[in-house]
Structure formats: C-alpha cells, structure tokens
Amino acid sequence: MEIKNIKPRLQWVDTAKGICILLVILYHTTEHIMDLSPALRDMLRATRMPLYYTIAGLFVSIKSPSIFLNKKINRLIVPFCFFILLGNLVSYIKSFIEETDFTYYSPLYYVVTSDPEGKFINSPVWFLFSLFDVYLIFMLIEKASDYCGNYKTTIKVVLSLLAGFCGIRCNRMGIDLPLFLDSSLTATPFLIFGHIIMSETNMFKKEYNKWTYLSLSILLIGIALFTASGDIDYRLNNFKTSIFHIYFPAFCGVIGILMFTKSIGTIPIITKIGRYSIVYLGTHYLFFKDLRLFFESHICQQQMILIDLLIFFCTVVISRILCWILLRTVPCLIAQKDCVFVGDIKKFIDK
User: Fold this and answer.
1) C-beta of residue 266 within 8 angstroms of C-beta of residue 199
2) pTM of this structure
C-alpha cells in the first residue's frame, strides 16, 4: 500500500485561524460591547480581515498554475457558492415559519455588482471570493517578479503596495469594482506580507525564546489597539480614515497575534475551531440575529453585556454543531475534500 507524504499541520497556524474567526464572530455578535469600547472596535475593524489574508499567504506557492487554480476553486469558490445557497435556504425556512415574503439573492448578482448597499444573505463569505481574487493577483505578481532576478522580493513588495494603493484610490474616488476587486487590491499587501515572512525569513521557522515572543506580541497588539482609528470595512472597500490607520495598526496587530500563537502553540478548542474556520465563517451569520431577538426578549435590557456574551457563546456552539454535521454530510462543499479534479487533466484522461 502506497503511503503519501502528508505534511503535518502546524498547530500554531490553526490557533491563529481560530483566534481570527473568533474575532470575526465577536465583532458581529457583540454590538453593545463594541459601542462601549471604541478602541477594541476600531482594532477589530483594522486587524481581523488583514489577519485572515496574512495567514492565507503563509504557505502560498505556485508550482503549477492549473493545479493552483483548481485547488483554490475547491477551497474557496465551491464553499462560497455553497454557503450563499445555504443562506438562501435558511432564509426561506425562516420566511416560511414566520409567514413572510422570501427574497432570493443570487450570488452571481452580488459578485458582479459588489452590492454596495449590502443586500446580501450570509455576507461574511464575501471574503472567500475576495481571497480567490488576491490569489490571482499574487500569481501575476509572482510571474512579474520572476524576471527580476535578485530583486524578486523587492518587486513583490513594491507591486503589492501599488495594488494596495490602487484599492485605496478606488475608495477615495467612489469606484466600486465588480468581483470584489477593489477590496482585493487593498488587501493584497497582507497576503504578500504573509508569503514573504514565511518564505524569505526565519521569523516563524526557528524556535525563539517563548517569553520574548510573548512580550513582543503583547507590545505589538497594544500598539495596534492604541493606533487603530476610523471606520474600516474591507467588504465594501470603505475606509473613513487615513492610509496610516488602515495599514500600520493592521500590520502590528497581525504580527502580534502570529507571534502570540507561535509562542503558545495549541489552545485545544481554539485550534480545532481554526482548522475548520471556513465553516464557522459560513454559518455564524445565519442565526445570531435570531439569538439576539431571543435573548433581548427574555433578559432585562439593562444586561446588554450579558446578552452580547451569550449571543457570542451560543453562536460559536451552534456553528460547532453545524460544522460537525457538514463535515459528515457534505465535506466536498466546505473545502474538506475536492469537488473538482485537481491536477494535469491530460494525464488524468490518458490513464
């Protein structure tokens, strides 16, 4: 029996993914806590999505463009379509129970128009399509840098910053590009950053003093907390703040969180959540508003912090249950198995 060499998962990376998706859920479900703590709200706005893009860039490499694209279709586009359809199904069931009109939202319409008004069921999964865009941009940057010899890394940095500048200019000029391209351009520097620090440096490869890493991580997260400012929305590519406040606290927070997870390694529950972060991303938005209505109708309105914490906790638990169900029923639709063929199609046909 042939045994394939499968690289073991890096637990600290899954921990970082787990923290990332929990920050996303925290931001969506705790509106009153966010109102009471503007600094925390601004930090989450500035760092939660850049952290996702940076983690995606840590191990990105292109050996075969066709295989690379097919893998990204399996890991991103297929789950994007599935969770959009799941959102419509859940919405239909709710409208049937409540005897209200049901409105179907097409994922194709949303992708093409970018829907600036935000009329979109299960909106957090926009990130999956945007990440696919960023991978395509990465392919172009990687191809261009191949012609630059010893300046390859420098060219990657310059081109990624240029892409980010173009994305910001789209926002400043009121231009909404289809296919989330404006948001993807803005986020490109983060994926390239993740790619460079993992492929060109030893920052996360060697074992360093754990306490040094923890101290630096706390310092960087603190800097991100105190420098983050303004309304930042990557989905709509809407930034009501300066370029400094878009990128500086984001990079500080991202490096701080990655150093923190590198130093501590595994946090059992959070690491498990991180392994299936796509499922949590695609399910948590489907029901947390219903949880808010339930808790607000059964708990005194003065206990808003308690309500927020209950919504956050119950959202994570329900997403965990749905994750268990989906893993056993439709793994190919949630990026756990391939839905389309990955590899050289000619060799596949010849066999």
Assistant:
1) no
2) 0.89
Report whether 163 contacts 152 (CB < 8 A).
no
Residue 152 CA to chain centroid, in angstroms? 27
Collapsing DSSP to helix, strand or coil, 267 comes out as coil
Phi, psi of 232 (to 5 degrees): -125, 125
Taking the C-alpha atoms of residue 305 and residue 88, their distance in angstroms, rounded to an integer, is 30
- Give 305-330 pLDDT, tens digit per residue: 899 999 999 999 999 999 999 999 99
> Whole-angstrom distance between the N-terminal and C-terminal Cα of the chain?
19
Helices (H) and strands (E) in the chain, counts: 16, 2
CA distances from residue 271 to 21, 22, 128, 181, 263 in whole angstroms, order as listed: 11, 11, 20, 31, 14
Separation of alpha carbons 142 and 134, rounded Å = 12
Two structure tokens written together for 195 = 């790619």
For residue 85 the two structure tokens come to: 């359809």
- Owner of token pair 């925290």: 26
- Tokens standing for 75? 């890991």
